[in-house]
């Protein structure tokens, strides 16, 4: 899969994209990740990328005659058709389901929005989807772009240690529950010990215990996920 991230701040991506699961996805060859500097497509001698909104409003907007050519450049440099995503607090919610759907695409172009937003014509001309990572406002789309790349790359086949690891993640479980608590060594710490059932090797009892814990935790923390 190819992901191109178009951004005013390419430096912000180096640490995150060179570590951990994203790095592994790149090394396995499953992910070809490129960061494209939007400034290179800026207009005029100052390579301007933003301007004042018509009609008066606070802040600046990314210009369509900068963002559209940048995305078209990305499209031209890859063989497979791309799905274009604009990061925006007004977008549809980024969920595990959307991450899974995106992980099955061949080519994504993520435009990290900045300032107060992007000229509406970008969305219309590129048939782009606006995507939000949550109901809060960040100063820019770089962190949302990193969040999406991270969540998508770990779902690419062969990237996690076992293809089963992603299945038990909270939000990926077929039953829609959160994962329950987990324990590792030591068995006893301060006055807290690992539940006996997890150490007794009865796989059926362990599965039942985990299911009950997942159910209780989901009820307590995310009642919106529980149907009954
Ligand atoms: N840009 C600013 N806030 C955002 C959010 N919550 N999600 C996506 N893009 C954003």
From TrEMBL:
Cell compartments where the protein resides: Cytoplasm
UniProt keywords, alphabetically: Cytoplasm, Methyltransferase, S-adenosyl-L-methionine, Transferase, tRNA processing
GO biological process, one term: tRNA N1-guanine methylation
GO MF terms, alphabetically ordered: tRNA (guanine(37)-N1)-methyltransferase activity
tRNA methyltransferase TRMD/TRM10-type domain span: 1-227
Pfam families: tRNA_m1G_MT (PF01746)
EC number(s) given by UniProt: 2.1.1.228
Catalysed reactions listed for this entry: guanosine(37) in tRNA + S-adenosyl-L-methionine = N(1)-methylguanosine(37) in tRNA + S-adenosyl-L-homocysteine + H(+)
Chain positions recorded as S-adenosyl-L-methionine binding sites: 113, 133-138
CDD domains the UniProt entry points to: TrmD-like
Database matches in NCBIfam families: PRK00026.1, trmD
Task performed by this protein: Specifically methylates guanosine-37 in various tRNAs.
Stated name of the protein: tRNA (guanine-N(1)-)-methyltransferase
Organism this protein belongs to: Sulfobacillus acidophilus
Lineage: Bacteria, Bacillati, Bacillota, Clostridia, Eubacteriales
């Amino acid at each position: 899969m190819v992901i191109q991230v178009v951004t005013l701040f390419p430096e912000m991506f180096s640490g995150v994209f060179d570590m951990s699961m994203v790095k592994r996805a790149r090394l396995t060859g499953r992910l070809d990740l490129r960061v494209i500097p939007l400034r290179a497509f800026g207009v005029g001698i100052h390579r301007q990328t933003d301007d004042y909104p018509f009609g008066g409003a606070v802040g600046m907007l990314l210009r369509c005659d900068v963002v559209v050519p940048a995305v078209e450049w990305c499209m031209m440099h890859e063989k497979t058709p791309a799905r274009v995503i604009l990061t925006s607090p007004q977008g549809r919610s980024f969920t595990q389901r959307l991450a899974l759907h995106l992980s099955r695409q061949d080519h994504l172009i993520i435009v990290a929005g900045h300032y107060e937003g992007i000229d509406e014509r970008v969305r219309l001309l590129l048939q782009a989807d606006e995507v939000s990572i949550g109901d809060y406002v960040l100063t820019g789309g770089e962190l949302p772009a990193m969040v999406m790349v991270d969540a998508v790359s770990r779902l690419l086949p062969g990237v996690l240690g076992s293809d089963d690891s992603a299945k038990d993640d909270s939000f990926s479980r077929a039953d829609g529950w959160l994962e329950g608590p987990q324990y590792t060594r030591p068995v006893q710490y301060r006055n807290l010990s690992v539940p006996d059932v997890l150490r007794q090797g009865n796989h059926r009892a362990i599965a039942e215990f985990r299911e009950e814990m997942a159910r209780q935790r989901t009820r307590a923390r995310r009642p919106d996920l529980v149907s009954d």
